[in-house]
Amino acid sequence: MLSKKQRVAKRFFDLILVIISLMIFIIPMIIFVIMASFSSRSFGIFSQQRVGKDAKLFTLYKIKSMRPNKAKHHVTTANDMRVTPFGKFLRKSKMDELPQLFNVLKGDMSFVGPRPDVVGYADELKGDDRIILSVKPGITGSATIKFADEEIILAQQEDPLKYNDTVLWPQKIEMNKEYVQNWSLMKDIGYVLQTVFGFLK
């Protein structure tokens, strides 16, 4: 679990990075939201309740890439028919994640940390696994980088939800526990750089 000094350093890093990122991406973000509005024929911002630090719910924002779905635990795959044509570009480029910069600015999220899950996953962690909930969820992180092609992996499974719950989710738990237990600011910087360079490939 992070000390008070470590939490302050992490938040300071987040604020510096989010200010720089918003200066770079605010105009493209607005353009993408307008385009997504036309593509989905609805307002181009998607919002959803996710599990945050200490299992508290917060509203996560994305640029809308899909048509609405009412399923409680639907796992999105690369061949999901609900993804709009423009949404495919957004998801492949990860540009749909840009509004989460405001989640970081608000303090709901961090740049680096476990990905914020829908209800039914992180909030149901038990025992030592709940250490994951002691940090804010992140835009990127070790598990996010490793499973960058998660939608493609799930699309290849006969039962994507079962595969996610029994194979991917347990691996993410272990990686996220290791992240919290061995946190350092240099590691956060490293994960951000890996994410940027991965995007530029």
Automatic annotation (TrEMBL):
Which InterPro entries does the entry mention? Bact_transf
**Could you tell me one molecular function GO term of this UniProt entry?**
phosphotransferase activity, for other substituted phosphate groups
Q: Does the keyword Amino-acid biosynthesis apply?
A: no
The alphabetical list of record keywords is:
Membrane, Transferase, Transmembrane, Transmembrane helix
The lineage's top-level taxon is Bacteria
The Bacterial sugar transferase domain, residue ranges: 10-200
Which ranges does the record mark as transmembrane?
Answer: 12-38
PANTHER family recorded: COLANIC BIOSYNTHESIS UDP-GLUCOSE LIPID CARRIER TRANSFERASE, UNDECAPRENYL-PHOSPHATE N-ACETYLGALACTOSAMINYL 1-PHOSPHATE TRANSFERASE-RELATED
Which protein family is named in the record?
Answer: Belongs to the bacterial sugar transferase family.
Q: What is this protein called?
A: Sugar transferase
Q: Which organism is it from?
A: Urechidicola croceus
